[in-house]
Amino acid sequence: MELGTVKPIFHFESLLTHHFSLKNKKSHKKIVPLDLTPQESLIISCFHKATVCSLEYLTSITNTPPSSILGSISLLEIKNIITQTSPGIYSLS
């Protein structure tokens, strides 16, 4: 690619992969605990549609205020189920 040319971005994940170092995808799937709250389960289900989710995406899909989502995200991070890959961007651990 020549200097000064613009490359179109069709997928958010490709943008992150190109500009940020993401963890390598593991060949095995992580087992998600069954003792999740309904909101935590709803957040996890968003990752089945997109492997990388922003806070804005999670709030729009779940129709939940950001303050409530952030509380659940913090608990999911403590449980080592999701990881913040960059500010406001999350993926499954």
Summarize the structure.
With 93 residues, this protein is an alpha+beta fold.
Description:
The protein has helices spanning 12-19, 38-49, 55-62, 66-78; strands at 52-54, 82-86, 89-92. It has one domain (12-92): Winged helix-like DNA-binding domain superfamily/Winged helix DNA-binding domain (Arc Repressor Mutant, subunit A), CATH 1.10.10.10. The radius of gyration is 15 Å and the shape is elongated. The longest helix is centred in the last third of the chain and has 13 residues, at 66-78. By secondary structure, it is of the alpha+beta class. It has a 3-stranded antiparallel sheet with strand order 1-3-2.
Question: Which key features would you list for this structure?
Answer:
Arc Repressor Mutant, subunit A; 3 strands; 44% helix; alpha+beta; elongated
